[in-house]
C-alpha cells in the first residue's frame, strides 16, 4: 500500500499531474470518474493567494468527491510561502504540494518554479519553512535539475526527505529541456534504488499508454505514476492503465458516444463552475483532444471553438454523436 503520510493511495497509484488552465475542478471530475487515485490543483501563486487575488483564490476550490487531493503552490519568497501555507491549510486538502518544476519564464525569472533548481539550499529552506508551518503532509514536484550539468535530483530527494516531505514527484526533464526530447527516468530509478529513501517517489513524464506505464513501472520501480498531457481530452487513460495492470489486456478505446458524453459533461461542469461565458471559452482548448482522429471533424470543431450559445454547443456535440456514432469511425 502506497501512502503519503497516512493517506492510503492503493497498491500503485495513478496521479493526475497539476496543469495550469487544465486541471480545474471540471476536468478533475472526469479524471476521478475514470479511476485517477490522486489529483492536484493547478499551481497557485503564493503572491496571488496572500493578496486575495480572485484568480488564485478560485483555484483553492476542492470538493469532497475528489479527495484525496493536493493543493499546489509556487513562489520564491519565504514569508509569502509561509503565509500561503496557512491559507492552503485552511482550505483543507489532504496534501500541500510545492511546485519547484515550472519552467515558464515569468515564473522562473522570479526564482519560483524550476528557478529554485539553481539554488538548492533555498529550495530546502523554503520547503522546511512550510513543513514546519502546516499540519498537512507536504509534497514536492520538481524536475531533474536546471540543466544537463546540474541534475542534482538524487541529493535533492534525500535532503527534502530529511526535512520532512512526505512524497516526491519527479518530471524526468531539466528546466532547460522545457518539454523537448524524451523524459529520462533513469535518475528517478536511481532514487528508488537508494535504500535511504523511504518516501513514495512518483515518476512523471511522457506516459501516454498502458504499455508504457507498465514498462516504466517495472523498469524504474517507482511507487506510482503521474500523468499529465495524455489525460487532456482523454481521461480514459486512467482506466486503461488500471485495466492493463490488472489483466494484461488492452481495453477498447472509448466509443464516440462516450467521447461526446465526456465533452458534454466537461462543458456542463465548466459552465457550472466558471459561469457561462468563461466556461464556454475555457472549454475550447479541450475539444480537439476529445475528438482526435475522427475524420473530417474540422467543420464541427470550428463551431465548437467559436460558438457562444450553450444550446448550440450541446446541439453540435449531439450531432457529432449521431454522425460518427454509427460509422466505422467509431473505432479509432
Ligand atoms: C498545460 C500544462 C500546464 C502545466 N501546469 C503545471 C502546473 O501548474 N504545475 C506543475 O507542477 N506542473 C505543470 N505542468 C507540468 C505537468 O504537471 C507535467 O509535469 C508535465 O506535463 C510532464 O508530464 P506528461 O508528459 O505526463 O504531460 C503543466 C504541463 C502542461 C502541459
Automatic annotation (TrEMBL):
SUPFAM superfamilies: FMN-linked oxidoreductases. InterPro entries: Aldolase_TIM (IPR013785), DUS-like_FMN-bd (IPR035587), DUS_fam (IPR001269), DusB-like (IPR004652), tRNA-dHydroUridine_Synthase_C (IPR024036), tRNA_hU_synthase_CS (IPR018517). Residues 15-312 form the DUS-like FMN-binding domain. Keywords: Flavoprotein, FMN, NADP, Nucleotide-binding, Oxidoreductase, RNA-binding, tRNA processing, tRNA-binding. It is an enzyme of class 1 (oxidoreductase). The keyword tRNA processing applies. Its cofactor is FMN. It catalyses: a 5,6-dihydrouridine in tRNA + NADP(+) = a uridine in tRNA + NADPH + H(+); a 5,6-dihydrouridine in tRNA + NAD(+) = a uridine in tRNA + NADH + H(+). CDD domains: DUS_like_FMN. One of its GO terms (molecular function) is tRNA binding. Its EC number is 1.3.1.-. The keyword tRNA-binding applies. The active site is at residue 102. FMN binds at residues 72, 141, 171, 228-229. Catalyzes the synthesis of 5,6-dihydrouridine (D), a modified base found in the D-loop of most tRNAs, via the reduction of the C5-C6 double bond in target uridines. Belongs to the dus family. This is tRNA-dihydrouridine synthase.
Amino acid at each position: 500500500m502506497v501512502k503519503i503520510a497516512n493517506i492510503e493511495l492503493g497498491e500503485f497509484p495513478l496521479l493526475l499531474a497539476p496543469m495550469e488552465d487544465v486541471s480545474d475542478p471540471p476536468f478533475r471530475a472526469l479524471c476521478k470518474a475514470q479511476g485517477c487515485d490522486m489529483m492536484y490543483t493547478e499551481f497557485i501563486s503564493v503572491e496571488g493567494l496572500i493578496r486575495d487575488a480572485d484568480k488564485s483564490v478560485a483555484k483553492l476550490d476542492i470538493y469532497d468527491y475528489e479527495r484525496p487531493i493536493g493543493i499546489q503552490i509556487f513562489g520564491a519568497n519565504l514569508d509569502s510561502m509561509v503565509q500561503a501555507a496557512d491559507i492552503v491549510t485552511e482550505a483543507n486538502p489532504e496534501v500541500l504540494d510545492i511546485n519547484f518544476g515550472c519552467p515558464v519564464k515569468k515564473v522562473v525569472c522570479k526564482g519560483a518554479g524550476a528557478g529554485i533548481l539553481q539554488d538548492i539550499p533555498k529550495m530546502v529552506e523554503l520547503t522546511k519553512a512550510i513543513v514546519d508551518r502546516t499540519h498537512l503532509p507536504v509534497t514536492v514536484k520538481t524536475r531533474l535539475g536546471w540543466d544537463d550539468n546540474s541534475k542534482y535530483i538524487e541529493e535533492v530527494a534525500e535532503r527534502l526527505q530529511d526535512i520532512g516531505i512526505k512524497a516526491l514527484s519527479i518530471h524526468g526533464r531539466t528546466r532547460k529541456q522545457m518539454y523537448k526530447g524524451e523524459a529520462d527516468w533513469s535518475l528517478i530509478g536511481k532514487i528508488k534504488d537508494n535504500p535511504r529513501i523511504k518516501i513514495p517517489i512518483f515518476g512523471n513524464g511522457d506516459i501516454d499508454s498502458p504499455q508504457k506505464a507498465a514498462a516504466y513501472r517495472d523498469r524504474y520501480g517507482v511507487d506510482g505514476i503521474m500523468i499529465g498531457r495524455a489525460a487532456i481530452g482523454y481521461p480514459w487513460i486512467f482506466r486503461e492503465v488500471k485495466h492493463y495492470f490488472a489483466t494484461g489486456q488492452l481495453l477498447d478505446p472509448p466509443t464516440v458516444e462516450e467521447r461526446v458524453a465526456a465533452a458534454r459533461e466537461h462543458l456542463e461542469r465548466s459552465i457550472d463552475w466558471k459561469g457561462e461565458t468563461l466556461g464556454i471559452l475555457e472549454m475550447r482548448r479541450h475539444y480537439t483532444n476529445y475528438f482526435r482522429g475522427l475524420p473530417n471533424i474540422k467543420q464541427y470543431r470550428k463551431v465548437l471553438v467559436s460558438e457562444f450559445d450553450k444550446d448550440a454547443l450541446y446541439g453540435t456535440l449531439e450531432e457529432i454523436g449521431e454522425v460518427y456514432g454509427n460509422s466505422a469511425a467509431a473505432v479509432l
